[in-house]
Amino acid sequence: MLIIKNLKVNYGYVNALKGVDIDIKGGQIVSILGSNGAGKTSLLKAVSGLVEDKSGTILFDGQDITNMSTEKIVSLGISHCPEGRRIFPQLTVEENLKIGAYVLRNKKVNLQEEFERVYAFFPKLKERRRQVAGTLSGGEQQMLAIGRALMSKPKLLMLDEPSLGLAPIIVNEIFKIIKQINSEGVTVLLIEQNANGALKISDYSYVLELGQVVSEGDSKKLLNDEGIRKSYLGA
Amino acid sequence: MSQVIVSGIITGSLYALAALGLVLIFKTSDVVNFAQGEMAMFCTFIAYTFMTFVGLPYYIAFPLTIICAGILGVIVYRLIIKPLSKSNVLSIMIATLGLIMILNGLAGNIFGFETKSFPKLINAKNINILGVSLEPNSLLIVLITFAIMLSLFFYFKTMEGIAIRAVAQDVDAAKLMGISVKRVTVTTWIISSMLAATAGMLIAPTTFLDINMMSEVHLKSFCAAVLGGFNTFVGPAVGGVLIGILENLVGKYISLAWKTVFAFILIIVMLVVRPNGLCGKSYRRKV
Q1: Residue B132 burial (10 A CB sphere; 0-12, 13-18, 19+)
Q2: Which residues 161-180 on chain B approach chain A with CB closer than 8 angstroms?
Q3: Using one digit for the tens of pLDDT, what is the confidence trace for B164-199?
Q4: Inter-chain contact A75–B178, Cβ cutoff 8 Å?
Q5: In this structure, what CATH number is given to the domain that contains residue B17?
Q6: Residue A165's closest chain B neighbor by CA?
Q7: Is B97 part of a structural domain of the chain?
């Protein structure tokens, strides 16, 4: 579904990605692990067209999207839920969700149905739908960010550190919901520092270090890999 | 007293219109459009030309000018804002300062430097409501302002309107929603140019039409935006009306000479005490 070949990203003189190859098959959950500064976020930003200084090829469903604008990429069915949630704090919960469906504005889409689909995943959001999003708790904001990303009916959902800064009980809930979203046919690209949780729910994983893929494989295999356990799982 | 307040509301609503245009552009692209007042003046001259040289009646010239104002907004965006979109915000603001001089010079050379009179919306005898003598024209100004504010309020609830607010809050996140920031920016320039033109045409009968007609109104609209909150869409409406009322009270009970000074003192105080304005809130991003 998403094929990335020899992707390089630069910020001025800093090479954030130094030639990365990634292949994501439809229907899977693929996780990308790595510590701070490994280039995980740059990878997602490159896919969704937010960084300009890049080279290599990105193919989505066979179509070259490397140099497309973000608007175009989103409308093709790639939804990017950014790091730090980035919800619109002064819009209400429901307005945040509504704007998530912006790319569908010219199609005949029943917004109410879409809201209900998201509320089914996150019942808490329904209770708070008239509330201004800036007043939500961290966990609720993350749920809103994921819900908003789902509103465009994506084929590929890219999540950047959804567990960041959340209480363990909420992290578990969010991972469970990601699995549930995937089981309804959405391919998921998950970026995580929480390697344990990510490996447990994903089918395939890549490990990034300093802008390069240093290891990849079935998540189950990686979970039992001695080297991975030592450097990322702390055991 | 009530007479003073009522006439304050009338001028205040015009400040509010002009301020709303400023805030709209500022919120979406962080640019303060210093040329807002000159755009209003230029459009008012266009309306004047429609009426005197083309011979169109007021009620046709008015909407036609609003359309021209929209086009002016697109032109300004295309010629000045878009080419500078990669440079920093300060350069764009300086460019809008330059635009003041361009529009001022153009207007003088095209339309002439002498002062002209501009017709009112309607000419009718004053009416008396609860002891306050009101000019029907002024009443209409307040009504129009209110109608514009109300329609903008509903516009901001539509998909396109939410897109504007989304860009105002987080540009990158808005892009990830598939929103074209360019399109939103040009829309805000069109709307605020139209707001400027409306304010210009409504105020011209009082200030008379010449190339400097908007200088004071423009500054007051800045005050209105700061007072109400440069970061909210409700702020300019509240700030505009408040400034209008307060400066009228000062003019009446203290001294006319202090009227304008007062508005600016108020701004300095506001910036020290409540930099976000009366309606402004600051949201902390949760980590």
Answers
A1: middle
A2: 162-163, 165-166, 169-170, 172-180
A3: 999 989 999 999 999 999 999 999 999 999 999 999
A4: yes
A5: 1.10.3470
A6: B287
A7: yes
